[in-house]
């Protein structure tokens, strides 16, 4: 294997050329089809579609495999998709249930080892090194952002602090006492932490943190910029989902130009969310993923519902694993108001670009008669929430008009005091749906 010039890597797999990646994918696709058909579910699905390991001749043959959906996983609850005896399984995780009942995923020890190494190389490409002290501020438990990242950080060799979610006071104390240089933090919590530091009068520049790994929920470039500026860190986007292990699926490298998806471990497709036809590079569609190395519970062509696309061009880091664009939202996140399609991230993009806007907002949907309406509650920064009604009215108007430019409808805007909207320790709830209730 010829390595790209001077590439500093943690795992040789980072340095694979396109040809090598594709050859490995084909070999592993055949293998995973064979393993998957040990579960009753895939045995039947694959037989119906006439797919066997031997019949896979090229990577395009992946399209002959039927899609797997979240409903399929729920239908096979609890053990229907496992491919090894239960005594070979060593870990269970579940999705956080953002959209309905959770789904469970099982891992063998080999699966956990592979996941830890994917996670370790992900951290490495974002500039994390064994000399770093790493604090994981995601919730531990069934959620993969806890243990998933944890084992990756240990594999990389960082001193790893399993802080878990919440308790900002303790988080800051740990950061200060142990000279923490890298954090994993959910973006909405990172924004909240900014407010907390302000309240406590702690200057982020006095903290030793240089890198924040942010992910697990949709967020905009505007949110990243705020986190970088207000926490005085470099922030790197981390994408994953429990069905594909969790974190360590796709990660930004130091160039911050999209997320390298680890193609030796996953086949990644972008399809039209309505016709399911494959889309060319550069177009946005639904991300579909196949596990290539998982043994205890392989999943084929999983429809993630996440909307993104491949970014064209080479990355200056030299890695040839393709890059995904920032996730724009989920297909089931879309809000339709007055016939216009809106994604919550469009609202965030507008709000966080306005300097007077604070770090939290909430989109409320309600019915007026039979018509769906949208109201955006926006926290203002402390210094801008003044008694002067005229000044407030003018900020409100400005927010409204920026939202109209982006969304093409004019939502009601309500500015509220800083720190007054509900916050969660885990993934933020950006939309509160009160439709049906006539208000
Ligand atoms: P749930 O689907 O119940 O939230 P998971 O905890 O497995 O379960 O979360 C995975 C989902 O979280 C992804 O499908 C995606 O919608 C979202 N997600 C994870 N990381 C990111 C990210 N970096 N950017 C945007 N969305 C993300
Ligand atoms: Zn790169």
What does this structure look like?
Helix content is 29%, strand content 26%. With 439 residues, the chain is α/β, with parallel strands linked by helices. The chain has 2 domains: 1-333, Rossmann fold; 335-437, ANL, C-terminal domain (GMP Synthetase, Chain A, domain 3, 2-Layer Sandwich). A 9-stranded mixed sheet has the order 4-3-5-6-7-8-9-14-13, with helices on both faces. A 4-stranded antiparallel sheet has the order 10-11-12-15. A 4-stranded mixed sheet has the order 20-19-18-21. Helix 4 (109-125) packs across helix 5 (144-156). The longest helix has 19 residues, at 18-36. Adenosine-5'-diphosphate (ADP) is lined by residues 95-98, 143, 215-218, 237-242, 304, 306, 327, 330. Zinc ion binds at residues 253, 255, 260, 315, 317, 319.
Keywords summarizing the entry:
GMP Synthetase, Chain A, domain 3; 439 residues; 2 domains; 26% strand; binds zinc ion; nine-stranded mixed sheet; binds adenosine-5'-diphosphate; Rossmann fold; alpha/beta; single chain
Strand and helix map with partners:
Elements: H1 18-36, H2 40-49, H3 70-75, E1 89-94, E2 104-108, H4 109-125, E3 133-136, H5 144-156, E4 159-161, H6 168-178, E5 182-185, H7 187-200, E6 211-215, H8 221-231, E7 234-241, E8 246-252, E9 259-261, E10 266-271, E11 285-291, E12 302-308, E13 310-311, E14 323-324, E15 329-330, E16 335-337, E17 340-342, H9 344-351, E18 357-368, E19 371-380, H10 389-407, E20 412-416, E21 431-438
Parallel strand pairs: 3-4, 3-5, 5-6, 6-7, 18-21, 19-20
Antiparallel strand pairs: 1-2, 7-8, 8-9, 9-14, 10-11, 11-12, 12-15, 13-14, 16-17, 18-19
Helix pairs in contact: 4-5, 7-8, 9-10
Bound molecules: adenosine-5'-diphosphate and zinc ion (ZN).
């Amino acid at each position: 294997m010829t390595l790209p010039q001077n590439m500093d890597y943690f795992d040789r797999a980072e340095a694979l050329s396109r040809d090598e990646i594709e050859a490995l994918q084909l070999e592993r696709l055949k293998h995973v089809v064979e393993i998957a058909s040990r579960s009753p579910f895939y045995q039947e699905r694959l037989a119906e579609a006439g797919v066997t390991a031997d019949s896979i001749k090229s990577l395009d043959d992946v399209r002959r495999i039927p899609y797997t959906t979240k409903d399929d996983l729920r239908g096979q609850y609890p053990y229907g998709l496992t491919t090894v005896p239960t005594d070979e399984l060593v870990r269970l995780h579940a999705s956080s249930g953002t959209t309905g009942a959770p789904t469970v995923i099982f891992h063998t020890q080999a699966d956990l080892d592979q996941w830890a190494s994917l996670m370790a190389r992900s951290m490495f490409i974002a500039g994390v090194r064994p000399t770093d002290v790493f604090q994981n501020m995601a919730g531990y438990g069934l959620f993969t952002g806890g243990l998933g990242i944890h084992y990756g950080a240990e594999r990389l060799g960082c001193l790893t602090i399993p802080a878990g979610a919440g308790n900002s006071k303790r988080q800051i104390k740990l950061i200060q006492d142990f000279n923490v240089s890298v954090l994993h933090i959910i973006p909405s919590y990172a924004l909240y932490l900014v407010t907390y530091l302000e309240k406590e009068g702690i200057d982020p520049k006095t903290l030793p943190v240089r890198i924040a790994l942010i992910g697990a929920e949709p967020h905009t470039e505007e949110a990243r910029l705020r986190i970088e500026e207000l926490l005085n860190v470099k922030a790197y986007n981390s994408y994953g989902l429990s069905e594909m292990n969790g974190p360590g699926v796709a990660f930004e490298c130091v160039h911050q130009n999209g997320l390298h998806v680890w193609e030796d471990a996953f086949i990644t497709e972008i399809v039209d969310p309505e016709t399911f036809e494959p889309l060319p590079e550069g177009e946005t569609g639904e991300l579909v993923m196949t596990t290539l190395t998982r043994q205890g519970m392989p999943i084929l062509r999983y429809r993630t519902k996440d909307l993104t696309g491949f970014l064209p061009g080479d990355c200056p880091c030299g890695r040839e694993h393709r890059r995904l664009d920032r996730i724009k939202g989920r297909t089931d996140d879309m809000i339709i108001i007055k016939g216009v399609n809106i994604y919550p991230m469009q609202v965030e993009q507008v709000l966080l670009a306005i300097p007077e806007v604070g770090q939290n907002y909430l989109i409320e949907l309600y019915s007026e008669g039979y018509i769906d309406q949208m109201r955006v509650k926006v926290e203002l920064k402390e210094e801008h929430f003044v008694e002067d009604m005229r000044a407030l009215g003018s900020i409100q108007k400005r927010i409204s008009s920026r939202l109209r430019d982006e969304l093409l409808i004019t939502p009601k805007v309500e500015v509220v005091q800083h720190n007054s909207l509900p916050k969660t320790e885990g993934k933020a709830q950006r939309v509160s749906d009160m439709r049906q209730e006539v208000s």
